[in-house]
Predict the 3D structure of the following.
Amino acid sequence: MAKITIDGQTYEVEDGQNLLQACLSLGLDLPYFCWHPALGSVGACRQCALIQYQDENDQRGRLIMGCMTPVGDGQILSIDAENAVNFRAGIIEALMTNHPHDCPVCEEGGECHLQDMTVMSGHHSRRYQGLKRTFSNQDLGPFIGHEMNRCITCYRCVRYYRDYAGGTDLHAMASRNRTYFGRFEEGPLESEFSGNLVEVCPTGVFTDKTLSQDYSRKWDLQCAPSVCVHCSLGCNTSPGERYGRLKRIQNRFNSDVNGYFLCDRGRFGYDFVNHPQRPRTPLQQQDGEQSSLTSEQAINQLKQKLKDPEICWIGIGSPRATLESNLALQRLVGSDHFFSGLSHQQEQVHQALLKLQRSGHGQLLSMQEAEEADAIVILGEDISQTAPRLALSVRQAVRSIGRSKAQAIGVPPWQDQAVQIANQEAGHPLYTLGTQPCRLQPICKQHFPATTSEQARLAFAIAHQIDNKAPAVSGLTKAQQQLAEEIAADLTNASRPLLITGAGHGSTDLVQATEQILAALSRRSKGEQPGLVVSFDECNSLGLTLLNHRGQENCLDDAFDIVHQSHDQGGKQIGVIIVENDLYQRASKATVDQFFNDLSDSVVIDYLPSDTLAKANLILPAASFAETQGVLINNEARGQMLFPVYAAGDNIQMSWQWLHASAADINDAMADFSNQAQALRACLETEPLLGALEPLLEVSQLQHQGLKLARMLPRASGRTAMRAHISVHEPKQPVDEQSGLAYTMEGVPYTAMAAEHSGGGMMPASWYPGWNSNQSIHKFQQEIGDNIEGPVTGIKLSLHSLPDPSIEWSEPTKKARAKADHLLLISHPQIFGSDELSALSTAIAERTPVATASLHPDDAKAMQISDNDLVQIHLQDQHIQLPVTINPQQAKRVVLVPDYLDEIRGLENIWVTVRSLGPNPVITSDRRAGHV
Amino acid sequence: MANHRLPNHDIISLSAVERREIEAECRHYPKRQAAAIEGLKVVQKHRGWVSDGSIQALAKFLEMPVGELEGVATFYNLIFRQPVGKHVIMVCDSVCCWVKGSDPLTQHIGNRLGIKPGQTSEDGLFTLLPIVCLGDCDRAPTLMIDGQQHGHVDADKLDQLLLELEPEIQLMEVSDG
Amino acid sequence: MADNADITFSKPLTGLIREDRSPLTLKEYRAGGGYRGLEKAAKKMSPDEVLEEVKASNLRGRGGAGFPAGLKWSFMPRDDKAPRPRYLVCNSDEMEPGTFKDRLLMEGNPHQLIEGMACTAYALGAEIAFIFLRAEYSVAAANISAALKEAYDAGYLGSNILGSDFSLELHLHTSAGRYICGEETALINSLEGKRANPRAKPPFPQVSGLFGQPTVVNNCETLCNVGHIIDKGADWFKSLGLGSDSGTKIMGVTGNVKRTGLWELPMGTPIRELFEGCAGGMADGYSLRGFLPGGASTDFLLPEHLDLAFEYDVIGKAGSRMGTASLILLDDKTCPVAMVRNLTHFFAQESCGWCTPCRDGLPWSEQILDRIERGQGSMEDLDTLAWHTQFMAPGNTFCALAPGAAEPIQSALKYFREDFERHIKEGTCPWH
Ligand SMILES: Cc1cc2nc3c(=O)[nH]c(=O)nc-3n(C[C@H](O)[C@H](O)[C@H](O)COP(=O)(O)O)c2cc1C
Ligand code: SF4
Ligand code: FES
């Protein structure tokens, strides 16, 4: 701790930080631009200047940059001194000489850091009389708008995009006051983290194009604390709505999970909520005839169906539905009749991963903890496609090597430029094992492209290298043996080694091998356990797996079998209730068609327009995440509550609400689902591991001195203005009966709530007087980068309690035999295209790459296939045609195709033949044009 | 400048000589990218200027992102990202030469060739550019033509220089001043 | 021979350089006593002794700031555990308007620089060195290249120099323009093939410089002195200076004088001797109104300052800087406002674009100056201009470019204020 004096006040502050951080942590307003809590200091903008005095007698002092000056005991400082105030006003005035002052038409208006800092610095009239320079802008693709004339040259964009996120296509160009930030040529920004530019840029150069297309000001948006549903990491978000449309997603700071950043799938994938074909009223479907129902009619229909003694009802749950909705369905049909909604293979891998997480051989790390890892092996999972935000954390782990090198020469970690110079791409021991090349490859020490069984063999060999009690692997090549030794050495030498794997590769062998490495490592490590991060496919995969104790027998394939057998053998008639699941995404069309044929009745509760929905006799429109209150369990077993952003109206309800409404009076087990808190309590009682979520029950109801928390910003003019052209009398606002949040602007602002509680955050949107942009976050943090103040909305479960887990070494995978003249068909995930929700968002669809079949050059050569040929892949009883790409970084004896192709659903890991049809006649850029 | 350029596909390939020369520069540094500036100069030496295609080819050769190289190329004023004439005349406009009359000299050249600073003559023979102090201040005013410096330049000397370079050209009639 | 030896005693840097600047060959250089310093260092002295000798000589950096060279070197970690490789870089960017001294040294006697660098690298334990040369100096580039070849062949460079276990690779890097490349950390970025934005200090290059390794950057003229200091000793070097600074300095005069040019004179020589003795005073019909003593980025001085000794501290006390010791004269036939506008135009253009006061403040200052010069300025413009010079004061900006740019403006406002006001009052430039 250091004692410093600022404008006569003495404060105790944390050592090691810089003065800007210290001032902001103290709640003092010191304006800044180029500094960012995650990006550190470079001292370019000179906005954060203050005065430092030599001693009490020094009257003039010396101007210093807060962000570049370390805190020192006994410093005497002033923010308010006239020469500091004058200088800061000058900086903003100079920055604004070329700014177009186009705030009324700027998307950033009202949440602009530049506006805030201008006001804060006291610049309000211009002396500059010259012409302004003008730039032309670039089309950067469907996500990001570009208006370079608003640039104030703080360099944050390239520092974030290139240095922090590893992007290679955004750069500073030209120089002096003509410095330009853009791409070499027009085209979509390639980084999967481009969306953060919107929040990183302190002015309106990089804006959210999806918001611009249907624009509202921040102060007109209604927001709520929410959780991303596009992968299993559970990043915290703050979605914004107006007029019943979801308009954008912003990052919601959570230091344990996503910190300051989201991935582009999470930010731009929301548009499925507004999909024109989304079911918005209950529908009855018979023989191709559709008729809409009132919700009362729909509930009555379902009630009648459930009462029908002829029909046995089964339920199919979903890894993208909340705990509450899955449990409600399970209660309704009984756990024997509840099926997880995952394919057999998915279910197996999920169970294996849960077992791995519970084994006690590794600590489950959060993304922020993963950033500290000093050796990382990623096994089988292409996290940049399946768990993108995690890949950003891995990049930070790699970068952190520079910080320790810098520390050795006395450079503090926040001195970003010097850290990078000290780093000079010092190799971090990051290894990736995968069938396909991965986006982290340029920064990894080695990439091992191979089939999952070969990866598993390598992993078993690594375990053996670490601890020779683990069985050895025979028949490795010399190169493989060497690699195993190298990885083993790096893992053993590390003080915080980390293994990452996931559900995407589909191999239980690989999961087992991962466990073996962890077991070997934890037996060797002195103190801390090795780290483990597991990713799943969907936002509540782990929650579903925890609730469905019978998963091994009750997966989707089991449901298909049971229904088919019953139908064939003239057994009982079966009806199905499917909650938030499109079965066509999980099994082949033929299988699902057959399933519906064999069924007597079907009810689908969902918000996605899907083929499954089209098959249902009764459709009940479910609330999407944006209208949902409930709990999702993320990949690291963190239970997080999300809240509705806006009221969905009577015809749209959360799945458990529909089930409760229809079944409460005919099924005692449903009594628990009369409100969200009760529903959640039922979940905690059903699965003891969930018991730790108890505090969430209180949080969901939390009020501040008897008042609810307003979802809109204080004094939002927006609500009145919204209907003023119709009538100045406002209609009664919807009431939120489930949570401590109030719709629209009545209630207390978050600023008041935050002052009373600490630990997490129910922040609907970040705002503080004078700080209208997301930069206001620090007003809610004790220390910069700390968690924000406010009630806890996420709690990490502890999945295992064994201090010294025993080890049962398993036998390594045997070498797989290849089938002559055949290749193994492997589907690979895509950040844009794979997730069924975001795939329905137009901006994401635009970024989904053309489907291709990817081959290793050796195989292509053997099969006489050249780059850009069209090939025909023979599947069981059909074939598909795709253009070819050839890639030396992928596994041999494998043909890779994107996993969103309908034709390959349910066809994992089969041997296929691939034949060239000659050069591809169509060169096309259309999303799925290659996919016939 | 990169703004508003549409994707172009004229990716050229570097010649064997260029590759050899750039490779030799690469050997001076622990990283290939460190030879970026020399690389750009090699390309410019052989091609007169650095086109979009050259940038792409060179970035590939140096194993660096093309935008990064563009950022470097557009930072340094002696890398020409636009075509220039057969001869490039650069007149020093910094203080010592200015005191000794570089403004009228520039005007004279412009008048003779029918171009303004920054322009290339219609016949493609001459490009006229201002340049900062050439470090030849005791011989002010100075200028540089095709890398050769000339000091104590006045209107007559200039006409003579132009005619030495291109004996065929017709200098425009001017009345300076 | 004897003559030569004498001349290198009194004019060590330029004594051997020929009138036409055709470069000394290795043979000629050696005949004049060349490479004796390196022989002595490599064969008879430890690196620490070399460093101590240079420290004792009080050689101050000739790049403009006058920082003691030996002291700078001593900040470089040199013990057994110190990082390797370590680098030495010669700053031959020389783009400060009015400055053309390093050019003479490199064109006329490239071996002198090579020897100085080899001695310095020996002291530092640096195994790789670069000469960072501005693009336009093609004659210097050719001469250095030829000399490098000779020096490698003769065993003054390369591995095991003169049979010692000291090895040095010396490369010539030619730049591609931009004044900011002369700022030592921007220079390092440029040498790494990057945009030449300066780097934050600390860490200083001696600790983390080129490619993150310990690096010393010295001016060309600074380094040219080193061989002589080792050869002839620190005491000799100190005795050359007339006042408190050691050695000689190459001094220049440009503008409307009888003779423009460069002269090697002892440190502390009165400016008048340079101006009148060497340059012959003003050309006929011109009279002196003021001068920038050390290049474009220094404050104006007045004729009354001509009798000052030309050395760092004396000029500093008079309110300006010795800089590169190149006088740029303002005569009575030149408009001071236009001259300052010209200077400001240069600095605004050469701003790297990193920090705000320089990037956005300088073009703004230039516009104000332009307006005043055209007779369209106002008295408030003068206040704004004065404010700008404060705005760009040392410490307010990221590097010293903008503070340097402010110097001629602030001193012109001080000494030639009536001229600014006349422009405003008369609505036109009185010199037109
Ligand atoms: C904008 C700017 C330009 C500079 N240009 C040069 C230059 O061209 N040559 C030079 O030797 N030093 C130049 N310097 C000074 C260098 O940064 C550095 O101080 C010098 O090279 C150190 O060498 P010395 O200690 O031997 O003087 C410049 C400094 C600044 C701020
Ligand atoms: S003062 Fe700032 S903008 Fe100017 S050259 Fe230095 S760092 Fe660049
Ligand atoms: S925030 Fe400190 S200089 Fe930019």
